[in-house]
Amino acid sequence: MIKKMSADKLYKFFIYLCLSIFAISIIVPLGWSILAAFKHKSEFYGNPWALPKGMYLENFRKAFVDAHMGEYFINSIVVTALALIILLVVAIPAAYVLSRFEFKSKRVLDTLFSAGLFINVNYIVVPIFLLVLDGEKAIKQIFSLPATMTLFLDSRIVLSLIYASTALPFTIYLLTSYLKSLPKAYEEAAYIDGCTYLKTLTNVIIPMARPSIITVILFNFLAFWNEYIIALTLLPNKSKTLPLGLINLMQVQKTATDYGAMYAGLVIVMIPTIILYILVQKKLTEGMTIGGMKE
């Protein structure tokens, strides 16, 4: 018995030690970056671990105004929010149909969506770019528009559509797996009360699947908010998002040796994701650990 208790304590100690090391490896760089955002550029030539001598908020003004991070921040919010709305409007009904109904092409659709999980979006950026160019050329020819006019490039709407479409396989797969675990008794009661399929989806299924939907929103928010390759390809001239603006800011500030403004831009990018994670942390855990009530 004593040996068993000692083994259990040793196992728990090992687990907590690994978790503590993992937490420290995340918290230390994060905290250092936040503190560095408040330092004057002269402070970076001394002890890098020293606390800032004051709250040098000029760094945030330089990043937000001079480096146009404020404009890029708004662009990222618009693109991410629009992409999430499009994604949820398409993915939730699709997952509902695939998880609750039987029809001839169901297996084919399941296979196609599952195959989409193995496609890395970064590998198909060039084909996506060529499709966008071909579509723009076709529209210009049909409506006799000027060749210099841009329709699909530098468009936040087009970028949002591509983000949403590339995230569909993962989102539908996750939602379908969750909806399959939900009991059908509630739907049957709704049908008896005269609810249509759409009303059942909005009033019964979506509230029950809220933890899974919040999980999907968080994962895709992080993916859209931090995405760089597609945004760099489809936004070559204007309407840049935060990751593109952050790269430009880092290049400029490294040349100017103004590291405070560079870290301030980094904090501007990180803050929304940290706040969102804090707000939905409980629901995120439920969505990943609870599969719903079994029939």
UniProtKB/TrEMBL annotation:
SUPFAM superfamilies named among the record's database cross-references: MetI-like
ABC transmembrane type-1 domain span: 73-280
A Gene Ontology cellular-component term: plasma membrane
Main subcellular localisation: membrane
PROSITE patterns: ABC_TM1
Gene Ontology BP, a term: transmembrane transport
Keyword Membrane: yes
Keywords: Cell membrane, Membrane, Transmembrane, Transmembrane helix, Transport
Subcellular location as annotated: Cell membrane
Family annotation (CDD domains): TM_PBP2 (cd06261)
UniProt membrane topology term: Multi-pass membrane protein
Listed InterPro entries: BP-dep_ABC_trans_perm, MetI-like, MetI-like_sf
Transmembrane segments: 13-38, 72-99, 111-133, 153-175, 213-235, 260-280
Family: Belongs to the binding-protein-dependent transport system permease family.
PANTHER family, per database record: DIACETYLCHITOBIOSE UPTAKE SYSTEM PERMEASE PROTEIN NGCG, MALTOSE TRANSPORT SYSTEM PERMEASE-RELATED
Protein name as it appears in the record: Carbohydrate ABC transporter membrane protein 2, CUT1 family (TC 3.A.1.1.-)
Taxonomic source organism: Clostridium cavendishii DSM 21758
